[in-house]
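Put briefly, the fold is written as integer tokens. One such record reads:
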Amino acid sequence: MERFIIEILPEGSEYGPRLEEALATDDASRCYVYKGKIMSSSITGRCHCGLVQWIAELPKKVILNCHCNLCRQLSGADYSSWVIFPEKQVEICQGSEDISHYQATDNYSISFCSKCGSTVNAVNEEKFPNDIYLARGNITSDFDMPADLQVYTVDKASWLEINDAIPVFNP
């Protein structure tokens, strides 16, 4: 059996494969296949109904939990959790014609499946130009990296306790 490295994450470090550790564990045998190509450093995701599917090549830029009013209103949740990638690392591999878009502000748009309504991604040209926000809850791959940052915690829901283990940034 061939062995492929996906990711080995030393505690407290940035994303980066560590070959020696990976080869010594069973984790090295996991891989993703897309269009016949072995993807050794990617994650996949989909909407609830499966009509829209995507793939993103690691490394990610940042994982953040956003507590701004816009994210809370658009998601209907206490906060939104996003994995942000450079646009060139994200591909909609199924259902691009089934994606609807909503321009929430001049700089912020959100895309969702036109059938089930699941958030697919968002774009914030002001904060992260040329990047794609992928909804963390729709990731189907093993992806257990913790959030890097919490933002707009000053706008958080009054009933929500902030996780002190995740750094806070209020722009």
Observations:
- The chain is about 5% helix and 35% strand.
